[in-house]
Design brief:
The chain is an alpha/beta fold and about 750 residues long. It is about 50% helix and about 15% strand. It has 32 helices and 16 strands. Helix 17 packs across helix 18. The two termini are about 50 Å apart.
């Protein structure tokens, strides 16, 4: 590199040297791949797999099979299958199918052929078979995929003709006196982009690499972004370049702009900064969107091969970063955007030079290498969506997988491609935009994506309990089933609009099928059942799960639904995989024999008898204030409306649950159980959940900082409750996967 920069040899010499060095670099890289690494470069270590890859890449339109590939590779079918799966990470024909679909997507994007011609070009004998295969890979038929791509291209073209919104560049002062440049553009709900290395507020504005990002995220949003310290328009001469300073800088920009609640976009090392901020301020971050992120820098990851390569890049930075000749910086460009156009590559080369000094580039790389927020991941309580390019050469794909595995409830979407930063024309950008838009949909635009999709696919059914009573039940979502025993206020027609537990249902729906029912005498269930006792409620739950054909499932019990969960889990331990119990108990208030609680309960019953016939609203508000002291007026109006249809059951409920005692059953429960209870619960004493935790062997107790019987979504205790739920479900999923 020094020879090229200082001697300025002829282009012919440069070309020959480039060929030699490229060949040697690939050989060195392949020879030093860590054990267990997969991907087509790893496949080049084996001659047979190399031959098979060459055939698949060049002859994907042919009728290939494992036998023909093995024959041409000179090995047996078994040997090729085992070697290919070991080195590439998937079987030969699965890799071939994905490669065909990627080629098909490129052809559809170019727009020169219709779907029928594309089908035959990639080896299908019928358009129908191609359509099915394409939909399996991309989620939509080819015609829809092309139309969406063309619509996006059209909207981008219109945006370019109109121009980007006006950008206002301002400055904030960090704790240590460093001046931070930030900008505000667009209109709508706020979206903050955590700074990543190599940003420049002015140059990004005109960039072929960043402009489509700015168009996308100013469409319906107010986008706030800022230049990292020692970078772009922020101060280059700063007293500290460290991870803690990066987090403080994000905090500073948010405080300066006066944001109370916002979505957070994080790319590359911005992910670690955003994660640390979200743990510090869970009340401020509405949603977290991550691309190409990691929780541990290359030095913290500790891979000797990666460390050696990074140290070499640091030396290259010291030698040639500030040179007028872009040769040195081209190395970084080829890692970040290997599929870039000549225009994009030229811009990236120049952007490196103008955005950061050589000294700061080295300091930044050193600081980023030491990042380690792995211990913070389980503490993230905000909804998180993570994207990562499969062949990212800057941050390993496994780093994105690690984030998704350890952030409770996070969703992970792999993107086909090599670019660390998604470029406008690659198929992965379209995939990213589709999911990001849905994820960031504002409250004013409709329900959360999970709830919205579930509502459209909800199935309502009716089954018959053992005594002939008709019980209404509902099935929502896909995945491993989770059943909720009926609660007094449940109503399958209206639960998705209920402020008491729609947010709980959303969590239960993440990757699962949710089954819930109306209690007998309530909602769509039999309004006048012959029996009304605890055994009938248990039999109703059994009838629902049997009608839903559930063999093994999870149970999510809330309030007095916990009693049904306990009784079922003790009677049928082989059918219950795990349980979540919120605000529950095993013994009724008559058994607990607390004089104050008994007096309070009797007073409520007397008030109900006196108020309910003449002034139901006053009684409902009085009762609601005990269940949810932090309720808003809208929440209380909902409670009054709901109580008006079911208050006839209040005395029957008190009679059933007054003397019940299921404590002898607790020792029979075998399922791992998460128990949560509000510290200030005025309906069910927290000591009741302590009893559950003491006697259920595989249990975990989490006390929630709340006075509400069931924490509400705006409750200060809800983020902690949600985090505990996600962590438990995620940990159990991993444990079950390991056991399998």
């Amino acid at each position: 590199m020094r020879f090229l920069a200082e001697q300025k040899p002829s282009s012919e010499v440069v070309a020959k040297l480039a060929e030699l060095f490229l060949t040697q670099a690939v050989r060195e890289y392949v020879d030093h791949l860590p054990f267990g690494a997969s991907g087509w470069l790893r496949g080049l270590t084996d001659p047979a797999v190399t031959k098979a890859l060459s055939i698949i890449h060049s002859r994907y339109a042919e009728d290939l099979d494992v036998e023909s590939l093995a024959r041409e590779a000179g090995v047996s079918r078994t040997v090729l299958g085992e070697k290919f799966a070991e080195l590439i990470g998937e079987p030969p024909m699965r890799y071939c199918a994905r490669w065909r679909m990627r080629m098909a997507a490129n052809m559809l994007r170019d727009g020169k052929q219709n779907a029928s011609n594309v089908a035959y070009s990639v080896g299908f004998n019928s358009e129908a078979a191609f359509t099915r295969a394409f939909k399996r890979e991309y989620g939509v038929p080819p015609a829809t995929w092309r139309r969406q791509f063309e619509e996006d291209a059209k909207s981008r073209g219109e945006a370019q003709r109109i121009g980007l919104p006006k950008q206002l560049v301002r400055h904030a002062m960090a704790k240590d006196g460093t001046r931070l440049a930030y900008s505000v553009m667009g209109e709508g709900p706020p979206l903050v982009k955590a700074a990543n290395w190599l940003n420049h507020l002015e140059h990004d504005w005109k960039s072929p690499v960043w402009k489509h990002w700015l168009h996308e995220f100013t469409r319906g949003h107010t986008l706030i972004r800022y230049d990292e310290r020692a970078n772009g328009l922020s101060d280059w001469d700063t007293p500290e370049i460290s991870f803690d300073a990066f987090v403080d800088d994000l905090e500073c920009v948010v405080e300066t702009t006066g944001l109370e609640s916002f979505d957070l976009l994080a790319i590359s090392q911005g992910a670690a900064v955003a994660i640390a901020y979200a743990v510090r301020h869970p009340e401020k971050v509405r949603r977290l969107l991550i691309l190409g992120g990691y929780s541990a820098g290359w030095a913290a990851r500790g891979d000797p091969g990666e460390i050696a390569r990074r140290e070499a890049l640091l030396k290259l930075t010291e030698v040639g970063w500030g040179s007028d000749h872009p040769t040195y910086r081209q190395v970084f460009t080829s890692l970040y955007i290997p599929e870039g156009t000549p225009e994009q590559i030229k811009w990236w080369n120049e952007m490196q030079r103008v955005s950061c000094s050589p000294e700061n580039a080295v300091k930044l790389q050193r600081a980023l290498s030491l990042i380690d927020v792995r211990d913070l991941l389980p503490k993230v309580t905000v909804p998180t969506l993570i994207f990562h390019s499969r062949d990212d050469q800057v941050v390993p794909f496994t780093a994105g997988e690690y984030l998704a595995q350890h952030i409770p409830g996070a969703t992970f979407i792999p993107i086909d491609g090599e670019n660390h930063l998604l470029l406008e024309k690659e198929p992965g950008w379209h995939e990213f935009v589709k999911h990001a838009r849905q994820f960031l949909k504002s409250e004013g635009e409709g329900s959360d994506a999970v709830i919205a999709e579930a509502k459209t696919a909800e199935q309502n059914e009716v089954c018959t309990s053992s005594d002939g009573a008709k019980i209404a039940w509902s099935s929502v979502g896909d995945g491993f089933p989770m059943a909720m025993p009926a609660v007094w206020f449940h109503q399958v027609e209206k639960d998705f609009a209920a402020p008491t537990w729609s947010h709980w249902m959303e969590e239960a729906l993440r990757g699962r099928r949710l089954i819930r029912s109306d209690m007998r005498g309530v909602g769509l269930s039999d309004p006048d059942p012959q029996r009304w006792d605890f055994e009938s409620l248990l039999e109703d739950f059994i009838a629902v799960v049997d009608d839903a054909e559930l063999e093994t499932f999870d149970i999510f019990g809330m309030s007095h639904g916990v009693l049904v969960a306990i009784a079922f889990a003790a009677r049928f331990p082989e059918r219950v995989r795990r349980m979540v119990l919120v605000g529950g108990y095993a013994e009724g208030f008559g058994v607990r024999a607390d004089p104050e609680e008994i007096q309070r309960r009797e007073t409520l019953l007397n008030l109900g008898r006196g108020y309910a016939p003449s002034d139901r609203v006053s009684f409902a508000r009085m009762l609601g204030a005990l269940y949810w002291p932090d309720a808003s007026n809208e929440m209380m109006d909902w409670f009054v409306d709901r109580l008006g249809t079911i208050s006839v059951l209040s005395e029957q409920l008190q009679d059933v649950f007054r003397t019940i005692d299921l404590r002898p059953l607790l020792a029979k429960i075998e399922a791992p159980t998460l128990i949560m209870h509000s510290r200030g619960d005025r309906i069910i004493p927290p000591s009741c959940s302590e009893t559950l935790a003491a006697q259920i062997r595989k249990s975990e107790l989490v006390m929630i900082d709340s006075e509400n019987h069931i924490p509400l979504e705006h409750d200060k205790g809800w983020p902690a409750a949600r985090a505990a739920l996600r962590t438990f479900l995620k940990a159990q999923e991993r444990a079950l996967a390991d056991a399998r």
